[in-house]
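new request in #modeling-help
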Amino acid sequence: MKEINLTLNNESRSVLVEPNEILLDVLRDKLGVKSPKCGCERGDCGACTVLLDGQAVRSCLILAVEAEGHSITTVEGISADKLSALQEAFIQFNSFQCGYCAPGIILAVTELLEKHPKPTLEQIKESIAGNLCRCTGYTPIFNAIMSLTKEEK
Amino acid sequence: MALAHEFDYVRPQSLTEALQLKDKYKDKARWLSGGTDLIVNIKEGMMKPDLLIDIKDIDELWQIGFNSGKLSLGAAVSFSELIDSEDVRQHFGMLTDACRTVASTGVRARATLVGNICSAVPSLDSAPPLFCYEAIVHCASVDGKRDIPIDQWFLAPRKTALADNELVTGITLTAIPNSAGVYVKLGRYGGEDLAQAGWGVMVDHNKQYRIAHCALAATPKRAYQIEQLLAGKELSDALIEQAIALIPQETSPITDIRSSKEYRLHVSGVMLKRGLQAAYDRLQGKTVEAHKLLGGIA
């Protein structure tokens, strides 16, 4: 067992892990963060997406020990005070049904909007090409994100 | 829940320390950078290392340098960093195209080009540009350094020329002045699929061509016969047909889960034709979106 220190949703945390423990499992089972979901466990489905130093990554393909000294953000972190505009749009457009893919998609798009506040539909599609949704057919998801690009501020 | 296989993990702070560890453990140790292939392989029981050596704390492996026409990439550079690099886009357009087709943003943020060539699967998207830019693979071990040209790198599916005590520290690519290239990939759908076929096509102002493919043979390959046929000639429909006729000699596709041998051969003709036209378009300054050349999805 090795103690690792990381920043999780803006809080300093430390946790004891074995070298062969996966970040996704440690987040869910040892750190109590349940929004990253276990899907394919091989990086194809995007349900386990978290932000690592602001970048969307697959937590099922990262060892917990690799997160030492890094900052992890999950949906719990971006909505700590209130829902983000993106989350509000997801509710307004009914963009999830079973909801299993939603945390991953929210985080992937959060990174996109950080880089490109007014993304094109193509940029949106590219950013979540690796986040599988088997309920919605994606259209309500695209509509929710596109609605944010039209707001005049 | 931990993985079924147990191993130790180290994160050396210097290249010397890393190489000494690898020399001690040889094939019992595996290099870890992005981990997007390695962790899957360990999960599936295909690899059972005693030790993972994480190279991400070794500063010199993070460099992206562009100098007098040469691009040097460290082993820890991710696909996302390559895609965002303006130098890469301007001088190595085919590489940007190829990087954008690798898996998805969430994987590309971690996965590395060097890890990709070490995995050495036949469908390796980054291989055609590496062949066309005549990449040199830089290796290091406790015994010293050695450079391996990309055409001597791939030995068989998942087999490379790397020795079991060596680390790939980086790759150098050479830009071709006044040239333009494009990477055309066919997958079954947009995003997150391995190539059914991939073609890299490059042309310069003197009508010299460089052409390479992936997913069409046991290893990615350069298509020298097609290059020689086209060399110095203006593109015409008749010439393109002659080039397409050489595809069966330049490739040895198989039938697998992603497509049949016959389909791979047929679609390669379409891809080569559109790739040649797109490379010419780019050479003349026109904007070409590589992922749309096959009528693809965003």
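bot summary: Residues 85-150 of chain A form a domain with the DNA polymerase; domain 1 fold (CATH 1.10.150.120).
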